[in-house]
Amino acid sequence: MANTTDQAAPETPRVADSKEAVQFRLARRELAETSITVVAFLAIYVGFGIWTHGIFFSVAARLLDIHSSVPVLLLGLATLVTLMVGQFDLSVAGIATASTYAVIGLTVKQHWPFYTVIIVALGLGVAVGLVNGVLVQRFKVNAFIATFATGATIAGLSDVYSGDTFLGAGTTGPQLPKWFVAFGSEVHKAPNWLIWIGVVAVFATLFVGLDRVRPPGWAQTRWLTTKAVVMIVAAAVLVFALRIWEWVNGVSWLILFLIVVGLLLGILIRHTTYGRHVQAIGSNPTAALLAGVKVRRQVMKTYVLGGVIAATAGIILAATQGSATPELASPLLLPAFSAAFLSTVVLSDGRFTVAGTILGGIFVTWVGVGLVTGGVNPNWVNVINGVVLIAAVAISTAIRARR
Amino acid sequence: MAGSYDLDVSKLHKSFGPNKVLKGIDLTISEGEFVGLIGPNGAGKSTFIKILAGVYEASSGEIRLGGQAIRSLDGHPEAGFIHQDLGLVDALTITENLCLGTAPKRRFGPILDKRAERRAAEQALSRIGLELPVDTLLSSLTPAEKTLVAVARVMDRGARLLVVDEATSNLSPVDARRVVEFLAATVKNGSTVIMVTHKLSEVLEATSRVVAIVEGQILSDAPTKGLDRAALVQMLVQQETSGHGNLPKFGDGARETLIELRDVHLGNLGPVNLRLDAGEVIGISGLMGSGIHDIAFVVNGTLKPDRGDVVLSRSGLSRAMVPPHRESQGGFGELPIGANMSITALQRWRRFARLIDPRREKQDSEQIMTELSVKPGFIGTPFEVLSGGNKQKVIFGRAMLSRPDVYILCEPTRGVDVGTRSEIYRLIRELASQGAAVLVASSDAEDLFAVCDRLALVSDRQLQPLRQVSELTPSELEMMV
């Protein structure tokens, strides 16, 4: 009898490999990865808070950090999309600078209607993206050098246009529209109720999503109780420790704009044919081609999308600064790439993600600000940022190699 | 015995996950033997060689060289490997190639002693009786000469046991013969040669002993003397064609032609004439490097022929392919099974605002998963953690989900176990009986016999005329190959 069982053993799938077990294992790993991110954020926040004797706990100041890094985060998303298809786009900073010049210059020097100006600025992004796409896909120019060159060219053109100087609205003459300036200003908050709806929606999604980590074999009541406890604890932390209402009240229009862009981009990547093709190309271009994906066309589209987001970042820069200066966006290029690469570690298993880019960018900003608040010489911030980026990329590479 | 280099392999096992590839190889090869190692694709020959070379590690078992237990032959200069990819650099001269990877001969400082290098190269060539000017660029040698230079290199480093792994399969018959004759000569001078080959004529001509590996075991081991071609074929196919049940066959009658290749030329391949009809499974086969997959790519529309026409019966004719290499050309490693399967068929679930309906997508994908019994059955499992056979099923499922008019299947059973094999065969027959046209491009004789209605071989760079499978015997096919 024992003999028979032995022989049958390899035929029946092991319990550990049953559908539910595998599902649970994967979901649990995902949960662990997410938790690490949440814990890291809390640790940074609490750690800096204690170190600075509570100065860092200022919600208004932290939200201001996010508000002022919206252009960087948008540039991060611009680099992200091309990285997702396994390409590079170094022209995003150049596009952003040119687009800022276009918004300011065409309004105050050329007196063009503002909506036309916005369309022209976005058109710049489309055009440079198209050129990038054609160079890389059609003429097989190395993406690194091609986009580096187009970025320099478009930034150079804006220098030619401006005479390589500051451009801004004078005391007389045409001004940027009031709503546009208000949109870029931190004092104008988004409506409370809108943000609260968002918070509730996140909680509801979490409540449903938690079911995926339900351990197989747990009874319904036991699981529901556990889940309820977890949610209540999370809510308590948000309310009592983090004072969530202050965060909600402090969300500026610009931050809301970033959230909306992030959501749209996330939906585009996850729930459209184009987005799936992007993921497939990033994973294995040869396989994508053989599976019927029009690789060239989709990569081309991605460069255009990156260009448009970069141009949007430039428009936002115009709104926040109210003026344009030469090489305005160039210092943002490295932080933008940092944010995108950090997304491979944050909330993720080594893949580039939209949410990870935004969170990663905020993380880098907070680390920098926290150090300066704590009394570190600001000159060290770039060193720290560089080290954080290198560490993040190294960790993500190591994670990939291990799996 | 000092200096002996007898190779002694005992109880060698190797598994990849649940797949047992080698099931106990026992083999002793003594000095001065010329052993031909034969076996069908996927039988475990190349795994065996890779273990000897140190690429893989055996799951269990022992390898001894000259009585001493070793992990692999890697790092033992007495043994040398000649692979299909010779590892020579075309843009360098013979001398420079022979010097690569050896201790540099220096005049002083970093300055190399060119004269000493040339002298050493001349010696290496003359030792094996090869007369070539050592300043010749590799690119101007014939394929046979290149192979012999590779032999000279390993022998110059002290190799007396040569493992030749399908190094002749890409050579023309004349070149291949020259290499084999040369190997026979080195055996006369006291070396040992193990030659893996698909070409039975080479085995009969030169070797002293034939070892056939089938299904991970040594099926026969005999002196070559007294064997003929038919006996060798018998060794290879006695396991095959033993009833794959009654696979459904599509009824005769008028068939609609879906795709036709007319006088297609691609590189030095051609002319190729091929017609795919609805409801029929057509097989094409040939040696490695014969271009059968290129023909498949042309049918799929991935490759454009240099000359000739690919005629589609109607515009919008849909095609789906299972590519020959599932890891590098098939799967998206870190993406889940679901995304891997649905990629070609996404339009089917497109709804409001061009968004994909995730519920319907999941439902349809899971249905195919169940039908193919992909394990584990969870749709979110990353592709890269699946076993080879399940990867193959997922890529198969991708083709099925897009419901194409024409299936192009390259090596549909490469690396899959016996159970999955017959499952895949059943599926292919089913697809055809539902009215799809199927092209199977495979170098595995079993594939072709199990599923094809008609098949043709690529030889001499041409696609030979199609023949009914029922008219062929397995031996005949092996003979043709």
Give a structural overview.
The complex is a heterodimer of chains A (403) and B (481). In chain A, 73% of the residues lie in helices and 1% in strands. Chain A is built from 18 helices and 2 strands. The longest helix of chain A has 33 residues, at 19-51. Chain A starts with a helix and ends with a helix. Chain B is an alpha/beta fold. Chain B is globular, with a radius of gyration of 25 Å. The interface between A and B is medium-sized, with 33 and 36 residues.
Instruction: State Rg of chain B.
Output: 25 Å
Oligomer: heterodimer
Could you estimate the helical fraction of the residues of chain A in percent?
A: over 70%
Which spans of chain A of ≥5 residues are poorly predicted at pLDDT below 50? 1-16
Shape of chain B: globular
Please state the CA-atom Rg of chain A, rounded to the nearest Å: 24 Å
Q: Give the CA-based shape of chain A.
A: globular
In round numbers, the mean pLDDT of chain A is 88
* Number of helical segments with 4 or more residues of chain B: 15
Strand elements of chain A, count: 2
Beta-strand level of the residues of chain A, as a percent range? under 5%
Please give the order of strands in the largest beta sheet of chain A: 1-2
What is the overall pLDDT average of chain B? Answer: 83
Class derived from helix and strand content of chain A: mainly alpha
Mind summarizing the main beta sheet of chain A? 2 strands, antiparallel
- SSE pattern of chain A, N- to C-terminal: HHHHHHHEHHHHHHHHEHHH
Low-confidence segments of chain B: 239-252
Q: How many strands in all of chain B?
A: 22
Distance between the termini of chain B: 42 Å
Structural class of chain B: alpha/beta
